[in-house]
């Protein structure tokens, strides 16, 4: 890092970046915080074609309300964060698939230039009374970030780490799978049907609102019963339940369009 470089903090997603920003302000620090875009643990990544990704998301995920607004220039935060005139500090919890994927792309975009990292490891972060360990930066409130002195974990990202992360992202791009999940600390490719067994396993024999099944599965994936941070969202699970209904693996009934407008149950034994 050179003295002339502006220090900027970087995190995936607006909510996480805002938490980091608030935590810095609580400590009297005014450094800029950049929210990186793109949900990179889901959808095609090679080639990185925004229109192809938009079509894929429209075909394979299902929002519960109005579709999200697409940023007018989603690449601009990446250009800001990797500009040669700044020195980035990247905040990441590698057990969160979305954060992990964003981080690997960020490392690749930095092209070997030095930067610092604040790595949040849930097992090193005790939360008395919390229902589950920390597996995502998105779980932390600004005051928790300050209390745990997460900024004190800032360190240089090493050359060896840089090479390994770049190679991992290149491999994932070659595989170009529908999903990417965290397994044993690494981001790996997964099929679109990866969560189907969990969905059918958690369905009951009684009709219930589809949103209840989605909530139960998300809770299971988040509470440590399974490896968390696997790259699922309610939009993906919603679409997969409807697909399982069409395939006859679940019974789904209702007019739609939202999760509260459908009911679901396990296929009755025959």
UniProtKB/TrEMBL annotation:
UniProt name for this protein: DUF3658 domain-containing protein
Domain (DUF3658) ranges: 154-261
Annotated stretches, region: Disordered: 60-79
Lineage: Bacteria, Pseudomonadati, Pseudomonadota, Alphaproteobacteria, Hyphomicrobiales
Transmembrane portions of the chain: none
Span of domain DUF1835: 8-62
